[in-house]
Amino acid sequence: MLSDQMRDIFMVDWEEWHADILFGDYLQADEDSRTYERIDDRMDKLTTMLDEYLDEYNQTHSTPMNLVFFKDAISHLTRVCRVIRQPRGNALLVGVGGSGRQSLTRLAASIEGFDIFSIEITRSYGLTEWKDDLKSLLMKAGAENKPMVFLFTDNQIVDESFLEDINNVLNAGEIPSLFESDEIEQIVSAVRPLCIKAGKIDTRDNVYQHFVQLVRENLHICLAFSPIGDGFRNRCRKFPAFVNCCTIDWFTEWPAEALHSVAQKFLKEQEANLGITEVQKALCETCVTIQLSVATATKTFYEEMRRHNYVTPTSYLELISLYIHMLQENRQVLSDKILKYTKGLEKLAEANKMVEELQEELTKLQPVLEKSSKDVAEMLVVLEKDQAEAAKVKKNCEKDAKSCQKVTAEVKVIKDDCQKDLDLALPAYESAIKALDTLKKEDITQVKSFANPPKMVQFCMEAVCILMGSPTTWKGAKQVLGKMSFLQDCRDYDKDNITEENNRRRLKK
């Protein structure tokens, strides 16, 4: 009725007029000078500001986000910002996975300057870890007076008692029996200055109630639940604070405009690398058509088979990522083949050029080759002649070798005989050397005094005279004995080079 009256009186269509109205306070970057105002009429500036907020978030957080700010995303972001900027503002975000509930909540908390808190589920995560996380969260919101956003999803429900604790915080701002007595004393000590500053009497009960009040005002719980299945309905019925104390925001299916914007952003980032600039628009429309056609087929499937099949935004993002990945792989394969064939053609061209050069060189060397062939033929004739002569020489050498072997055998026999004689003479030789060392001047004087020496003395001195090159008479022997260096000459005599020829010459003298 109201819509009809506005249409008749004010000529305004209520549904069309209020559908796109957006109010927010984040067009000014300075948090102190922000004003809550209408922002849907400045979409260009709004998109620019949101991109700046997103860049700031990515620079200050270890896990960056890549978001597309289409119309529905901006609406949901604005709602979350409006909810958490109010004291005791909590939100129930209902939608399927991948619809942007968590990402937009994190960005909204960053825009409003709030700290975001979320539990990390591990294999050993249980009630003890949950209680510790809740204590830390409530201490930051109450004792430290920090605005906090607690993001909790249905995938983090390890135990249903988690929901009961959240329900208590939404209803009363506290959880019974959460803090021990000593921890409560710490809270009272930390909150007492805040209680006095607020103008309250700093009794123990007043201080603790002020702590609870700060928790309710500073802690903003954002529940991201999926409506799929009976779990969501049962939990809303079992824990009424989820509905009564939260602002519900439904994340419905992405419209065609949102699908097109998302596809355009992701494909535009890769258009230079993938070479899809000219067909980018057609690719975006194709992605939208595929998603919408699958959604339509899903409805038909449910009507015919009464079985649900959910087409989520995550599926759409995976479709785009899969296309980009496959296109990159195929382009890489094609690039590798082009490079392979290009290198092959270059090698063939190099081989052809080398063959041509070799042919030219062969042509130039043809006369030289003919002359070399002639020289080789003449050399072969000479070699044949030389080989015949070498064969004759070889035959003579073999004959001489046999003769040498015979002579070698004879020489060996003579050597063996000489060695035997030498072995017999060596003891006498060594005995003579020792005897020489025993001679004294008195012995020489005694021999020299003989007028008629004994026969063996005469014989020995004749041998000495022969070796010394003197006459073999007794007079010559006395002359040899009379030399002052006789004994030293005997010791220094070259005993190793006594030859028969030398002895003959000495005898002739």
Keywords:
about 500 residues; mainly alpha; five-stranded parallel sheet; two-stranded antiparallel sheet; 19 helices; 7 strands; about 70% helix; disordered C terminus
Helix/strand order, N-terminal first: HHEEHHEHEHEHHHEHHEHHHHHHHH
Strand order of the largest sheet: 4-5-6-3-7
Helix content: 55-70%
What are the segments in which pLDDT stays under 50 over at least 5 consecutive residues? 505-509
The quaternary structure here is single chain
* Count of helix runs: 19
Question: Which structural class is indicated by helix and strand composition?
Answer: mainly alpha
Rounded to an integer in angstroms, the radius of gyration calculated over CA atoms is 60 Å
Q: Per the principal axes of the C-alpha atoms, what is the gross shape?
A: elongated
What is the mean pLDDT? 83
**DSSP, total strands:** 7
Instruction: Report the biggest beta sheet as strand number plus sense, adding barrel if it closes.
Output: 5 strands, parallel
**Kindly, what is the distance between the CA atoms of the first and last residues, rounded to a whole number of angstroms?**
171 Å
Question: What fraction of residues sit in β-strands?
Answer: 5-15%
